[in-house]
């Protein structure tokens, strides 16, 4: 979420963040401390220039809406879309957990990461892939979440290792959509490192305001009272086996509130291992804003690499407080940052001139993307589920297997793809016979089914390339006996 939100307002209508006195030495994105000459007005840093457009939005009282949450372990539907990925060398059979980079709203991977995280990861010998979201992340976040599911599965298969997801703003939050509604991804993900994520939406925009003026679908969904946010957080926010590192700042102008007892970025429920890290906990004088957290913050850098280099989430006790003396991530291409600001503003339907003149215009997404109604919640994210979804069994690594209650086999022979990460397998069926064959580099169960108008259970046991033993099952319905 690059383009909606700032701090809550006081009873007088003034923004407390704007009223706070600014220290004489403001950390700039250019990695130095600058004190303007007496009488000269300070020019906004590039990150703050982008966020000046968000300073005058009305406060929206959060009122969680939406149906009851989906069961936590119900398998998600088959994903037909293919994610657009760009990967570094070394992703195949990687020596360590690869990083999957997910950009924020209105940004491409090039804008968000090509000049910062990607070269830094390469320098440290960490393989990575980046995901391009539809319409630069301004479209339905549910679609981005489904593409991320495909990306997780593919990067996991290519690398042979669990994936670490690093995302800024929406990019950090959308990882949780994949983990929440596609449970098979949980065993494939090691870390979720989220920089300024709107995990509970932002009060800077509201569904009522978006309905009145129009917002991009993604902005609509990232309001604190959206159906999307309610569905995302229903039941549990984290899951066992996955480590979550959330880095956020009390000075975030976009995701609000991100201070006080209930910061939007913080995660509080579920069985995952979680570190909620406000930058001011490490560096009390840190003033990182929303954009800076994702692209230049030395605290974000230190926390991310602490999480990547150790089991579990980042541990503030391991992070050297010398990071507080830095003004940007080590080795970052600051010169290239200056070329990124205009494209980021353009993606939100703004420019430097209009931002400076408006000093508080509503940034609700690019004009051509604005709608007046939130996208409906998809059936798999509801308590009722999609037709036949509750009947599915096993890991959805089956890539669209026909399951009982959804469809049926009109023949006694069937070929069923087994999980892609398996190297050896044995299969049995309750009615009929099964053999295992490798086709196009993937194991398949070749079935000869018995009986008629019956449900046949298929049970498989397999071994991954890493030696892990897994069990998997599904059901097939025979609807004719020919």
Structural overview:
By secondary structure, this protein is of the alpha/beta class. The chain folds into two domains: 52-381, Alpha/Beta hydrolase fold, catalytic domain (Rossmann fold, 3-Layer(aba) Sandwich), CATH 3.40.50; 389-477. Helix content is 23%, strand content 19%. It contains 15 helices and 15 strands. Strands 3-5-4-6-7-8-9 form a seven-stranded mixed beta sheet, sandwiched between helices. Strand 14 (455-464) and strand 15 (469-477) form a beta hairpin. Helix 5 crosses helix 6. The protein is globular. Residues 4-67, 354-362 and 390-407 have low confidence and may be disordered. Pfam families: Lipase_2. Keywords: Hydrolase. This is Alpha/beta fold hydrolase.
